[in-house]
Design brief:
heterodimer, A: mainly beta, globular, B: Neuraminidase, 3 domains, six-stranded mixed sheet, five-stranded antiparallel sheet, 5 helices, elongated, binds zinc ion
Chain lengths: ~150, ~650
């Protein structure tokens, strides 16, 4: 009996650490980890943002985990309470981020996606849904979840 | 300035006792602390833990939060402080290469995030959030995937604000980008922001945090009278009032925040009610759900590899969890802030009921604490809506809202009014929501619920225990409209009994309910023979208050579930060639007294079963035709 078909079966997870320099993204660390990926991070609805999409060997999407990292600007905090928090643009983003993805037996690769969902209708409008505009997806890179350890 | 400029000396857990694989794990790493300065780092970590765990809602969530410190010895003390950022020009050889003056701004304290993340992963593989404490009394910090903060007074607030972005997906609520003097930030551009704590919408019925807004609070609560500038007036309402306050998400006008102030707007103030709720929904699901014991659970499979489960917690909160074959169980989260009616003394309380009109959509229903009927929906595009009231009907306290989707574009909704009348309304994609009406004059027994089934897209059958404790039915057909109510045989039912119905095929109905003495009784109808007589099913007797649940996995097979008088969970089945089997205890399970078993078949060879156990937690098990019954597991996050 494949245990991925059973509601009780823990899925297992893999931590990934990426470094980026401008548009160049590299996987520098991959590590199986005994940790639960909450639904909060792996919600099944389609949202705007950056995601790690777990795919099977046939490129079918299995799960998407949010990556909440805005590299385009940084926040500057005031020394005196009450003074404004401000933001500054980052000219040439570089840095690193991490994500933990669920890894069922079928999971074979992970794609980094920037998803842009057209603005939804005002909340509560649920008349005849004209087909929602298709979300735009930009694949930043696809990385293996199995095989030779990355960054080791 | 690299990892050659120091070494990791070890990791110590300083707060929390949750299992690391189901906790929110925060790792604090030191930078610019020399070997003899580790006590200062240790003290800063303790101070941060104290500050975080005193900040609502982290105080309430503390049992699921572990905090670790990773001691790192650096060659030099402090951090770089370049002249280009207005600093002294000091340099320090440190492990994570921390530096003030990022982007030419002295307070922007940055570090080598890749080294921090790989070090944290090596020290605490299960970490959720990594923060670097920098050995300097110069005020500074920054966010991103790694938060940094210095030893200056109040700098730990930076880390808490930044975790709002990184771990919880919260938006900035401040109404400017560069402090308010910048141009181009007068009006927020069109397009509702995806974050839960800012909006362009001030419509009470559709506001995404509408559940938290008091009916007496005006919307918008504060409007900016001059969009050319930031509204700097004091609040016009008491602190803690949830409404819509103009000026948020980097713009003076057009975008609204939930409260006058929030930690996502200003450091040193509490998180607003909405941000607290979002944080709860990230960490709370790591724990167990204490369920309102007798409220039935609702479950549906939008497709065979996915389950959505709805329950009500002991304080009445509407809760949900979901399972996906690819990612396991999500954990219990609070569904759009809803609170369900507990009903009268000893009542089961209103459940959250659910229907899926198509695989990318859910509609859910409950009766609120004001005894009005509420609905919310989830859509693959857009996620969860807020709860909104369906008309002005006042339902009987604790009433169940039953819903049927005859087609993808139509819902029929049924419940019991405060006067016991059987009430209905409908939603149609073309016309929206109808008003409420009484179905053919029907009145339910005190405590009874109405059930509905659509055997065809143009036909409905309704069932209810009437005020005479007999079982009554009526139907709707698109050619003839609603029929009168008629009595099904002479069987008397328990007045709080639900009549459960399944259609094994389109021209067959099987009914199950409990007699006045708790006996589990059944009858049937088919198109060729009409109604059969009532009979007791295999000698079964239900616990007071418990209902009978039926599932038809295929056209010549039925599975039944109930809680017996000994509170054990029982099942039996019927097969057309062998008739009714005897009742058996499912995997040793014991349920809360008077609770109800929920079951569904997402594929023909499988049953998934859900109950509230004798300890008030939600449990599940499954049956598969190749392996039989599994053991019970506590439903939460996996
Ligand atoms: Zn911020
Ligand atoms: Zn807030």
């Amino acid at each position: 009996m494949p245990d991925t078909d059973q509601p009780a079966a823990p899925a297992g997870a893999i931590r990934l650490i990426f470094e980026y320099d401008g548009d160049d993204v590299r996987l520098i660390h991959r590590q199986p980890v005994d940790v639960l990926v909450p639904g909060f991070d792996a919600a099944p609805d389609i949202r705007t943002g950056r995601f790690a999409e777990v795919r099977d060997a046939d490129d079918r999407a299995l799960a998407r985990v949010a990556i909440r990292h805005d590299a385009s600007s940084r926040e500057v905090f005031p020394e005196d309470p009450g003074d404004p928090i401000t933001r500054v643009d980052v000219e040439h983003p570089s840095g690193a981020f991490t994500v933990v993805v669920p890894a069922s037996e079928a999971a074979s690769q992970v794609a980094l996606l920037d998803v842009d969902v057209p603005p939804p209708p005002p909340p509560g409008e649920r008349g005849i849904a004209s087909a929602p505009a298709e979300p735009r997806e930009n694949v930043l890179g696809v990385f293996p979840l199995t095989g030779r350890e990355a960054g080791q | 300035m690299t990892t050659a400029d120091g070494s990791v000396t070890g990791t110590t857990q300083i707060s929390g006792a949750a299992p690391r694989n189901r906790a929110f794990n925060i790792v604090l790493l030191g930078d610019g602390f020399q070997a003899g300065q580790q006590a200062a780092f240790n003290a800063a970590c303790t101070a941060f833990a104290t500050a975080l765990l005193a900040t609502p809602p982290f105080d309430e969530l503390a049992p699921a939060i572990n905090i670790f410190r990773t001691n790192v010895t650096s060659t030099d003390a402090g951090a770089d402080d370049p002249v280009s950022g207005g600093g002294t020009g000091a340099t320090a050889r440190t492990y994570f290469d921390s530096s003030f003056g990022g982007n030419g701004i002295r307070r922007l304290l940055v570090c080598n995030a890749g080294t921090v993340l790989t070090t944290a992963a090596a020290q605490v593989p299960e970490f959720t959030l990594a923060l670097v404490v920098v050995n300097s009394t110069i005020y500074g910090g920054s966010g991103g995937s790694v938060g940094t903060f210095s030893l200056a007074a109040g700098a730990s607030e930076i880390a808490i604000h930044e975790s709002g972005h990184t771990a919880f997906g919260l938006a900035d609520e401040y109404p400017y980008y560069a402090g308010g003097a910048e141009t181009g930030h007068d009006h927020h551009p069109a397009g509702e922001p995806g974050e839960p704590n800012v909006t362009l919408n001030t419509n009470r019925a559709t506001l995404k945090w509408g559940w938290a807004v008091n009916a007496a609070t005006a919307l918008p609560t504060m409007s900016n009278p001059n969009c050319a500038a930031v509204d700097s007036r004091a609040s016009t309402v008491p602190a803690g009032t949830v409404g819509t306050f103009e000026g948020a998400h980097y713009y003076h006008c057009g975008a609204f925040r939930p409260e006058y102030d929030c930690k996502m707007r200003n450091l040193g103030v509490p998180f607003c009610r909405i941000c607290r709720q979002v944080i709860w929904n990230r960490i709370g699901p790591l724990g167990d759900l204490q369920a309102r014991a007798r409220t039935p659970i609702s479950v549906l499979a939008r497709y065979p590899e996915h389950l959505d489960v709805f329950a009500v917690d002991a304080s009445g909160r509407t809760m949900s969890d979901w399972w996906d074959a690819s990612s396991g169980w999500a954990g219990w989260f609070h569904l759009s802030g809803g609170i369900s009616s507990a009903g009268g003394r000893g009542a089961a309380g209103s459940p959250v009921t659910s229907v899926s009109r198509y695989s990318g959509h859910l509609d859910v229903f409950t009766v609120g604490t004001d005894n009005r009927v509420y609905s919310a929906w989830w859509d693959r595009n857009g996620g969860w809506s807020g709860w909104f009231a369906l008309g002005n009907l006042v339902a009987r306290p604790g009433s169940t809202v039953n819903v049927v989707a005859r087609t993808n574009d139509h819902l029929d909704v049924f419940t019991i009014g405060s006067d016991g009348k059987v009430m209905s309304c409908w939603w149609d994609a073309a016309g929206g929501w109808s008003g409420w009406f009484n179905v053919s004059g029907g009145v339910a027994a005190n405590g009874a619920q109405v059930t509905a089934i659509a055997r065809y897209p143009f036909h409905l059958d309704l069932f209810v225990v009437g005020t005479d404790n007999r079982v009554w039915s009526c139907w709707w057909d698109d050619r003839s409209g609603w029929s009168s109510w008629f009595q099904i045989g002479a069987q008397k039912a328990r007045s709080d009994s639900t009549v459960n119905v399944v259609a094994r095929h389109r021209d067959q109905l099987d009914l199950f309910t409990t007699a006045e003495d708790g006996k589990i009784v059944s009858t049937w109808w088919n198109a060729t023979g009409g109604w059969g007589g009532w009979f007791q099913v295999s000698g079964g007797v239900a616990s007071p208050g418990s209902q009978v649940t039926a599932v038809a996995r295929y056209s010549n097979h039925l599975d039944l579930f109930t809680v017996g008088t000994d509170n054990r969970i029982y099942s039996t089945w019927w097969h057309d060639t062998t008739g009714w089997a005897g009742w058996f205890n499912v995997s040793g399970g014991v349920a809360a007294p008077g609770s109800t078993v929920t079951a569904l078949s997402r594929v023909m060879e499988q049953l998934d079963v859900f109950v509230v156990g004798s300890d008030g937690k939600v449990y599940s098990t499954w049956w598969h035709d190749t392996t039989g019954w599994a053991g019970w597991f506590r439903l939460g996050i996996t």
